[in-house]
């Protein structure tokens, strides 16, 4: 959605104090220029976003505290095994009437 392009901008990143930002929503959610400024000033101390042609063409690739993992990096056997364990645990705890990992909207 075009409304989300650059949603994480300098106004939001100004509020950070040593934050680590993990962008799982896609490269266009964060304004790269604003992120570079936040990294330069230390407001953001680490940033992770999926590697793409666009991100590799920015200065982000030059920062040691920026992680640019490939698109399928989550799909390791370890990750899939962890997901299975969590799903099984959540199912069993729910059946026992003591569900885990519940989101309650306030």
List the helices and strands and how they pair.
Elements: H1 10-13, E1 19-23, H2 32-41, E2 44-49, H3 53-56, E3 66-67, H4 77-95
Parallel strand pairs: 1-2, 2-3
Structure keywords:
about 110 residues; alpha/beta; 4 helices
Number of helices: 4
Which residues sit in consecutive blocks of at least 5 with pLDDT less than 50? none
Helix percent reads 25-40%
Q: Describe the strand arrangement of the main beta sheet, using strand numbers.
A: 1-2-3
Rough shape? extended
Main structural class: alpha/beta
Looking at how many chains there are and whether they match, the oligomeric state comes to single chain
Distance between the termini: 26 Å
Radius of gyration: 18 Å
Number of strands: 3
Strand content: 5-15%
Largest sheet: 3 strands, parallel
Strand and helix order: HEHEHEH
Q: If you average the pLDDT, what whole number results?
A: 90
Summary of the model, kept short:
The protein has 106 residues and is α/β, with parallel strands linked by helices. It contains 4 helices and 3 strands. Helix 3 (53-56) links the parallel strand 2 (44-49) and strand 3.
Give an overview in words.
- A three-stranded parallel sheet has the order 1-2-3.
- The chain has four helices and three strands.
- With 106 residues, the protein is an alpha/beta fold.
